Amino acid sequence: MDRLVIAVERISGLFLGCVVVLSFVSVLLRDVLSFSIPDWFLFACFLQGIAIFWGVASTTYRNSHIVVDLTWELVGPRGQRAIDLFAALVTLASLLVFAWVLVGKMEETVASGRVTQDLRLPIWPFHVLASLGIGAAALLAAIRVRRLILGR
């Protein structure tokens, strides 16, 4: 299980690193050589979205979202477990709906044949990668719920 989570984190980090490199190179080329990478901003946006969606998968499993836990702190261990389980179930339900909607959007994008403005490259691969990230988030949320139910 840890290898799956580490792989998800690495995928997110890889795409975030691509955004940084693409932005740095684009600015450098623009300022030094007065040359702009075609569609660089669009690619940076797509890659950032993919990194965020895969990052959601990682934070969902590790339960490292930003939380306000005043109520959680005031209740005992059984109450804390109940709150954790409820929160994990709500997160899972939300991610399942999000994944379902995103897969529909991805199918629509594949069918539309939309391409980038400058290079005329199809944009559907970016939508597929983003959908896979939310799918991974839903899967890891389900694993987290299972672990909470089993008391791990």
Provide key terms for this protein.
mainly alpha, 152 residues
Walk me through this protein's architecture.
21% of the residues are buried. α2 (40-62) packs parallel to α5 and α4 packs antiparallel against α5 (124-149). The model has no long low-confidence stretch (mean pLDDT 91). Helix content is 80%, strand content 0%. The radius of gyration is 19 Å and the shape is elongated. It has one domain (2-149). With 152 residues, it is mostly helical. It has helices at residues 2-33, 40-62, 70-74, 77-112, 124-149.
Given the helix and strand composition, which structural class is it?
Answer: mainly alpha
Shape: elongated
Helix content: over 70%
| Number of alpha- plus pi-helical segments | 5
Number of domains: 1
The average pLDDT is 91
Distance between the termini: 13 Å
Oligomer: single chain
The biggest sheet, with number of strands, parallel, antiparallel or mixed sense and barrel status, is:
none
N-to-C SSE series? Answer: HHHHH
| Unreliable residue stretches | none
Strand content: under 5%
Query: What is the CA-based Rg, rounded?
Result: 19 Å
Let me know the number of strands: 0
